[in-house]
Amino acid sequence: MALTNYGHFTTLRVDDGRVRGLGLHLARLARDCRAVFGAELDTDRVRAYARRAVAGPGGGSRAVVRVSVFDPDLDIGRPAAPATPHVLVTRRPVGALPLPPLRVKTVPYVRDLPAVKHLGLFGALHARRAAQLDGYDDALFHGPDGHVSEGGTWNVGFVRADGTVVWPRADVLPGVTMALLQQAHAHTTEPVTLAEAPGMRAAFATNANVGVRAIAALDDTALDPGHPVTAALRARYLALPGDEL
Asked: Strand pairing partners for 66?
């Protein structure tokens, strides 16, 4: 992976041996394996590997598990050659939820193949680093059309003055946590411009590791990190029972 940076992954948060949106994570791995390698992935084998990683030495019933799919024999001169994808499962400790609110800086950036959760994180992490060096916690991307899209490793949602939850319509990764929240809470999906975003009452970041994380500031504009709609979304997400890994 270090030599080619070609592959894809998903990240699962395991709480008490269960994963919220497990079926969506496995479906993503299978879909992205076809898109990246033109190959089918044995998701039952992936699930067994993930269980083994959680239960391994020093493990327990709670962890953040990343499943990466790559081909160690990939030839960068012939990436169209038939692939034999391998699976790498890594584990790290979970943090307590909720995490403190984020201050984010808007930056122009569009990920390659946004619909695929691929290994090409350089641009996103470089944008995050630059935002942190500028005094923020993370970067929020927008496209050349001035429409807000996503963060480097998270989706973004907004709350209007009337309490409506708005997910940006843009080329973004179809996040598992975002999908679960869309199933659990009324919302609308529509373009959000850079001019409109600071006028929202609240905003939040979502991914499998952090769940729902409030955004306290967008550039120089303060937002309400304690907005009741954000709190309600977080509570609904945490109440999801998940599926046994």
From this structure: 11, 90
Q: Quote the pTM value.
A: 0.96
* pLDDT tens column, 71-99: 999 999 999 999 999 999 999 998 888 89
Per-position DSSP letters for the chain, written without gaps between them: -TTT--EEEEEEEEETTEETTHHHHHHHHHHHHHHHHS----HHHHHHHHHHHHHSTT--S-EEEEEEEE-TT--TT-TTS----EEEEEEEPPPPSSPPPEEEEEEE---SSTTS-BS--HHHHHHHHHHHHTT-SEEEEE-TTSBEEEESS-EEEEE-TT--EEEE-SS----HHHHHHHHHS--EEE--BTTTGGGSSEEEEEETTTEEEEEEEETTEE--TT-HHHHHHHHHHHH---EE-
